[in-house]
Here is the input.
Amino acid sequence: MVLMFLNGGGMRGGPLHEQLQGAPLCCVARSAPKYHYFSVGDRFPAMYEGGSGSVVGEVYDLPLAVLRDHLVPAEPPELELGVVELEDGAACLATVLRPSFADSPGLTDITSVGDWRAYLASR
Here is the structure.
């Protein structure tokens, strides 16, 4: 089992939520204020360390087999597994933007919003 911080389509009501295979929600949380947060072509969000923004998400207690067999295969190629810091200092797995995509033209900085659902609602 691992703690997984989700901040996009894997959250409740999102198109990837079924990939969690019923894994329990532990809590709604925020990341530490040290990330850039991007919309990638308005398809999904991506965190990238080195900023000053905090990101809203959900923490799930996820079996490694579910991560391996369901969640990771459903993620786009722009994302990879990483470890992020939550607001309370805890470490948590998350999908983050691959460094090779950090300068991509399709990124929209949504750090000031810090919440994928709020961003989508504002478009």
Summary: The chain has one domain: 2-122. Helices lie at 64-74, 116-122. Residues 2-122 form a domain with the Hypothetical upf0131 protein ytfp fold (CATH 3.10.490.10).
